[in-house]
Amino acid sequence: MAREVEELRKDCASYTEKLERIKSATNQVTPEEKEKVCSEQKLYCKEWRRRKRMATELLDAILEGYPKSKKQFFEEVGIETDEDHNVTLP
């Protein structure tokens, strides 16, 4: 028990030291930087949606005259979709 208590005290001391380093860190994110990053993410998500829609429309137009299924076409051409990799738009 005494050994376990001593190990827990060492862990507590290391966590306290880590917490102090985090609190004293000077590289905090300012609200302006946070807003800038959030607006950039919204822009990139909007662009992602737009490009995905354009690609889907183009592929659907190609598939209208294609004799095989959509899945077979994607395999032949080598197209990987977001759904293949379980990626969702935020």
From TrEMBL:
Superkingdom of the source species: Eukaryota
Places the protein is found: Nucleus
Alphabetized InterPro entries for the sequence: LZ3wCH
Keyword line: Coiled coil, DNA recombination, Meiosis, Nucleus
Family annotation (Pfam families): LZ3wCH
Signal sequence annotation: none
One biological process term in Gene Ontology: homologous chromosome pairing at meiosis
Recorded GO CC terms: condensed nuclear chromosome; DNA recombinase auxiliary factor complex
Molecular function, one GO term: double-stranded DNA binding
Every Leucine zipper with capping helix domain range: 29-85
Name of the protein in its database record: PSMC3 interacting protein
